């Protein structure tokens, strides 16, 4: 089963054009012989006041990576009916992309979003470099492949793809918070993350009255001072009546981020706090830092952020597509 072409193919990765550069010497497989009867052009979709023609759809389908992938999955002796069925399925998906492109162009005009010639030239240079080519080599491969009627058609399609990306980046909204990154890291390293063995002493005020909070803070300060002076945690725990719950081993995500950062940064034997917690104040005596086989949070967070932002962008871009389609008049005549 084929999947609908994603934004990575028609926007972020420009994979349709990159694939052309990579496979240019071999034209895209033609489902029917060139000698087949030529049909008159016809309208396959009406999008608001614009039309998509059968000839546009045919050209876009012929050179789309999805068609190559679909035909490559067929056996060498596949009957024409199987080839036609695969092409029909791909055509429906490609038509959705062409419809989306019409809607994107309209939004670009509405919000004055443009793509300059310099941006197109930069994209061409990038595609060529990715395929170890010069731009002139790329142009020659495009011409030799016969997948495009001209170099101008190739660069025009590239410009459309950049425009679609620009519109999505401008109109789609997405974000990734530090909390989401931490939660992802916690789940990713749940069984292998670093942990800290410690003694924990919490001091909760009797009420939110400032005097009660001051007394709780003073008690936390006194406990921290006694621990720094060398008093054993078990002695302090016995005095406070917390002989069972003061010993803890915490991993990433087990305590609030500000508390987590403080205890994971501390060396064994260090006393951390008093720190404000959700209910009052807390003092930690770090016993041992238990190493992890996983990357540390600081090392991994940028990579996680990139992954989560890509996922969030894809979701937002799909939602934008649905919104544009919902408010448009689209008549498919495939």
Write a brief caption for the model.
The protein is α+β, with helices and mostly antiparallel strands and 334 residues long. The protein has 13 helices and 7 strands. The protein folds into 2 domains: 7-176 and 308-332, Triger factor/SurA peptide-binding fold (Orthogonal Bundle), CATH 1.10.4030.10; 194-290, Chitinase A, domain 3, CATH 3.10.50.40.
Helix content: 55-70%
- CATH architectural grouping of the largest domain: Orthogonal Bundle
Unreliably modeled segments: 1-35
The termini sit apart by 20 Å
Order of helices and strands: HHEEHHHHHHHEHHEHEEHE
Structural class: alpha+beta
Number of beta strands = 7
Major sheet attributes:
4 strands, antiparallel
**CATH class category name of the largest domain:** Mainly Alpha
What form results from the Cα inertia axes? elongated
- What is the typical, i.e. mean, pLDDT? 84
Approximate strand percentage: 5-15%
What number of structural domains do the residues give?
A: 2
What is the fourth-level CATH superfamily of the largest domain? Porin chaperone SurA, peptide-binding domain
Q: State the CATH topology of the largest domain.
A: Triger factor/SurA peptide-binding fold
Topology record:
Layout: H1 7-12, H2 15-22, E1 43-47, E2 50-53, H3 54-62, H4 65-72, H5 80-110, H6 117-130, H7 135-145, H8 151-171, H9 178-188, E3 195-203, H10 210-228, H11 233-240, E4 247-251, H12 257-265, E5 271-276, E6 281-290, H13 297-326, E7 330-332
Helix pairs in contact: 3-5, 4-5, 5-8, 6-8, 9-13
């Amino acid at each position: 089963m084929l999947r609908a072409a994603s934004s990575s193919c028609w926007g972020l990765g420009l994979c349709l054009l990159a694939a052309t550069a990579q496979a240019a010497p071999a034209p895209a497989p033609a489902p029917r012989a060139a000698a087949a009867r030529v049909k008159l052009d016809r309208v396959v979709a009406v999008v608001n006041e614009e039309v998509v023609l059968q000839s546009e759809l045919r050209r876009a389908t012929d050179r789309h990576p999805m068609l190559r992938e679909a035909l490559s999955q067929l056996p060498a002796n596949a009957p024409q009916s199987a080839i036609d069925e695969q092409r029909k399925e791909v055509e429906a998906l490609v038509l959705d992309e062409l419809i989306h492109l019409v809607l994107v162009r309209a939004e670009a005009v509405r919000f004055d979003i443009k793509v300059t010639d310099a941006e197109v030239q930069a994209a061409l240079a990038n595609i060529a470099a990715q395929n170890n080519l010069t731009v002139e080599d790329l142009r020659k491969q495009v011409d030799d492949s016969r997948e495009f009627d001209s170099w101008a058609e190739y660069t025009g399609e590239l410009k459309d793809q950049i425009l679609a990306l620009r519109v999505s980046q401008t109109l789609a909204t997405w974000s990734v918070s530090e909390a989401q990154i931490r939660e992802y890291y916690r789940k990713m390293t749940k069984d292998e993350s670093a942990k800290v063995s410690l003694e924990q002493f919490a001091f909760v005020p009797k009420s939110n009255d400032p005097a009660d909070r001051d007394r709780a803070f003073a008690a936390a300060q006194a406990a921290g001072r006694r621990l720094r002076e060398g008093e054993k945690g078990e002695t302090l725990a016995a005095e406070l009546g917390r002989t069972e719950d003061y010993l803890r081993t915490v991993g990433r995500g087990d305590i609030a981020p500000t508390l987590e950062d403080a205890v994971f940064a501390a060396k064994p034997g260090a006393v951390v706090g008093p720190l404000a917690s959700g209910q009052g104040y807390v003092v930690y005596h770090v016993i041992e830092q238990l190493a992890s086989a996983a990357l540390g949070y600081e090392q991994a967070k940028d990579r996680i952020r990139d992954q989560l932002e890509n996922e969030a962008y894809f979701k937002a871009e799909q939602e934008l597509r649905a919104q544009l389609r919902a408010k448009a008049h689209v008549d498919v005549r495939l």
